[in-house]
């Protein structure tokens, strides 16, 4: 992500270390979150990026996928969940003194050793944003001509007729002068 890279680079430049929550490169010094100087410097970098004191040139991507995440947790396994845990292999039973029945029927021990994980989409909506120009090039000239006609009461054809009349008038005046100069 461009924004994360920008914050990462700025924190390296200004703080000589980087935020441990950002993706790291090789041989990068990680800021200590126990050091007030490092925490203040990282806060200044983030504040500077947010209020545009530091410039991050990050254009909008052509394609982007985002997923909203909701996290919920439970402290213990239910009695229905303990029946869904697979039987341990023969080797693990021999190497471990806990059997399936002993481990799972002892719920505090089962809660420490097993986790139930569910992953699913929050919504199946799919949103597509498309950018299209408000006016095509031919529409600009059509609207300009229409506005000129509306406000000035003339059309493009009338403009060319007026220009043609002026051209013919100038030609007529010049030809009259030539004729008069020829007679003199």
UniProtKB/TrEMBL annotation:
Q: Could you tell me the keywords of this UniProt record?
A: Ion channel, Ion transport, Membrane, Sodium, Sodium channel, Sodium transport, Transmembrane, Transmembrane helix, Transport
What are the Polar residues biased-composition ranges?
A: 91-100
User: Where in this protein does the record put region Disordered?
Assistant: 81-100
Identify its membrane topology class.
Multi-pass membrane protein
The membrane spanning regions, by residue number, are 148-174
The biased composition feature labelled Basic and acidic residues covers 81-90
Q: What is its main location?
A: membrane
Gene3D superfamilies under this entry? YojJ-like
Similarity comment text for this entry: Belongs to the amiloride-sensitive sodium channel (TC 1.A.6) family.
Recorded protein name is Degenerin mec-10-like
Lineage of the organism: Eukaryota, Metazoa, Ecdysozoa, Arthropoda, Chelicerata
Name of encoding gene:
LOC111083823
């Amino acid at each position: 992500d461009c924004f994360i890279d920008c914050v990462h680079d700025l924190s390296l430049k200004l703080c000589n270390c980087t935020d441990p929550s950002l993706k790291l490169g090789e041989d990068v010094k990680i800021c200590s979150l126990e050091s007030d100087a490092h925490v203040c410097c990282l806060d200044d970098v983030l504040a500077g990026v947010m209020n545009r004191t530091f410039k991050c040139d990050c254009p909008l991507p052509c394609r982007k996928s985002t997923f909203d995440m909701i996290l919920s947790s439970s402290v213990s396994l239910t009695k229905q969940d303990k029946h869904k845990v697979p039987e341990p292999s023969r080797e693990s039973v021999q190497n471990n003194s806990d059997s399936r029945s002993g481990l799972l029927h002892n719920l505090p021990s089962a809660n420490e050793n097993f986790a139930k994980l569910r992953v699913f989409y929050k919504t199946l909506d799919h949103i597509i944003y498309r950018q299209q120009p408000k006016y095509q090039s031919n529409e600009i000239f059509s609207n300009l001509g229409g506005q000129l006609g509306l406000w000035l009461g003339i059309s493009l054809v009338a403009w060319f007729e007026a220009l043609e009349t002026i051209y013919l008038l100038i030609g007529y005046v010049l030809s009259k002068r030539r004729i008069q100069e020829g007679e003199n």
